[in-house]
Known about the structure:
Oligomer: single chain
Number of helices: 6
Largest sheet: 7 strands, mixed
Number of domains: 2
CATH superfamily of the largest domain: Vaccinia Virus protein VP39
CATH class of the largest domain: Alpha Beta
Strand order of the largest sheet: 3-2-1-4-5-11-10
Helix content: 25-40%
Structural class: alpha/beta
Number of strands: 11
Distance between the termini: 36 Å
Bound molecules: S-adenosylmethionine
Amino acid sequence: xxxxxxxxxxxxxxxxxxxxxxxxxxxxxxxxxxxxxxxxxxxxxxxxxxxxxxxxxxxxxxxxxxxxxxxxxxxxxxxxxxxxxxxxxxxxxxxxxxxxxxxxxxxxxxxxxxxxxxxxxxxxxxxxxxxxxxxxxxxxxxxxxxxxxxxxxxxxxxxxxxxxxxxxxxxxxxxxxxxxxxxxxxxxxxxxxxxxxxxxxxxxxxxxxxxxxxxxxxxxxxxxxxxxxxxxxxxxxxxxxxxxxxxxxxx
Length: 251
Ligand SMILES: C[S@@+](CC[C@H](N)C(=O)[O-])C[C@H]1O[C@@H](n2cnc3c(N)ncnc32)[C@H](O)[C@@H]1O
């Protein structure tokens, strides 16, 4: 399955994601500013986090596997007059000649890595590129704080107004493969325009990692957690938290 189906329409991706991103952006800005840069934003998408950091004057490199997402990030960077650099690359194998004082990986992009070996490759890339006293911040949805039940009946999720001004109703189903720890969401976006009713289906698979498994993976890669939160507004992490947000340093 092509796991980038959700990222083919970056303009509308921003309209869906930006409204819920304020706390995450503020969190990242606070830590990145302390680091003074340079910053690496892995799986940066359209630059929802990278561009605010670049606007603060930090040198930012954003890396993402999706060409449409990177093309849109570049367009926005030009429009904002920032010097952020955006590269199409795979975060599992990314290699740069320099290190970074701050590395971000957010929007639950860690969950796009569907096996432990892929997660380990990414964490090694992070450890290899993190400055001796740099910080790496990422989040992954908490399996014990998430409804992982199969739900084959389509349920309404949210609505928004797309770039053409049409109201889009987003609904979907989910199915969980417990053995592989992979939840697959199927989304349906429905809207009407002059050509009639439109529907677009997309699938995305995400791996869910327990907090103990995560800490073991981080330790093996040479990273340790110095702070942990359950949400971007600094609530402490508990077993019921929706997110596992980890602030990490090199061991
Ligand atoms: C939910 S989006 C998050 C994007 C961005 N961080 C944000 O906050 O909006 C997940 C991103 O991960 C990217 N991605 C998935 N697998 C990747 C990989 N192996 N290397 C780099 N980017 C990847 C996708 O292209 C997509 O842009």
